[in-house]
Amino acid sequence: MISLLIDTSNRPLSVALNRDGFTLAEINTTVKKTHSATVMDYIDKLFRMTELKKNDIDRIIVAKGPGSYTGVRIGVTVAKTLAFALGTKLYSVSSLFVVAASYSKEGIVAPLFDARRGNVFGAVYNMKPDSFTEEVAPAHMSLKDLQTKLSSYESSVILLDGQENISANLEDFVHTVPRISLIEQFETALEEEDIHSLVPEYLRISEAERNWMEQNKS
């Protein structure tokens, strides 16, 4: 089975082609660029490197959020468009779980993304070699709340892109960026989606929506 995997949820970008869960080719970047300008070029490069054709794809897997509003939307839109055009299956996975899988070690891990104003998008997973338990579901919360949740475990590791601003508020974390090529060993983390109904998982309303609601309170 050939899988195309896409994650543009945050500043890092990760795309890969896997065969039967093993990586054929992948491109991972952490440069600050607009993903809409690069993701299709990188996907084309994967096909050139592997000498596969787009019609060889059996399924597309996309990180559906949380993360940057624009980043998540780009990845989901590209995945849906390709799945529709190629008539292939579409699966989604939490962007936070992609980071947990990218750590590639066992134990209690808490991947997080900076959500600004002292808040994070976070989750807690108990990771094993080819399985996991979701201890805390992905949510928008304060960094303090996440740390409180982790205090109930004897040992835990916070996973974070060290270039995010929230890192300045943490004394101990492991710099981890997504490698979406690694998630297929955790099949239960994947959810088959209807192409037309899949929407990004933002986990919070946008600032523009929040401002509008404040201005229109009755």
From TrEMBL:
Gene3D superfamilies linked: 3.30.420.200, 3.30.420.40
A Pfam family that the UniProt record links to this protein: TsaD
Sequence ranges assigned to domain Gcp-like in this UniProt record: 31-146
A GO CC term assigned to this protein in UniProt: cytosol
Gene Ontology terms describing biological process: tRNA threonylcarbamoyladenosine modification
Name recorded for this polypeptide: Gcp-like domain-containing protein
Lineage: Bacteria, Bacillati, Bacillota, Bacilli, Bacillales
